[in-house]
Write a structure and sequence with these properties.
The protein is mainly alpha-helical and 94 residues long. Helix content is 46%, strand content 0%. It contains 4 helices and no strands. Helix 1 crosses helix 4. The longest helix has 15 residues. The radius of gyration is 15 Å and the shape is globular. The protein starts with 19 loop residues before the first helix and ends with a helix.
């Protein structure tokens, strides 16, 4: 069982602090499964698909709202706020 703590001494013994690296790793997994097909491995997009390198969570939220309203990728609405932030963390590397 993974217990996330705040890194202080009073945190539960045997627990661990989740770092941004794990968010980036989760973001890469989510990106590969939900975004890579259209936006490419590095988020550069193409002539008809926008470049999404370095976008914020707010921009991802707006894009997902637009995409799901257009019924292009309705499953993206199922991504949690934390998952969308992880995708933004991953894209922030480029």
């Amino acid at each position: 069982t993974l217990v996330v703590n705040d890194g202080t001494e009073d945190s539960a013994p045997g627990s661990m602090t989740v770092t941004a690296t794990s968010s980036i790793n989760q973001g890469q997994i989510l990106y590969n499964g939900n975004c890579k097909t259209c936006h490419g491995a590095d988020g550069m997009g193409s002539v008809t698909i926008p470049n999404i390198q370095g976008v914020s969570k707010a921009q991802i939220d707006a894009a997902i709202a637009t995409i799901t309203q257009m019924k292009i990728r309705p499953n993206l609405n199922n991504l949690s706020a934390q998952q969308r932030q992880a995708i933004a963390d991953f894209l922030g590397q480029f």
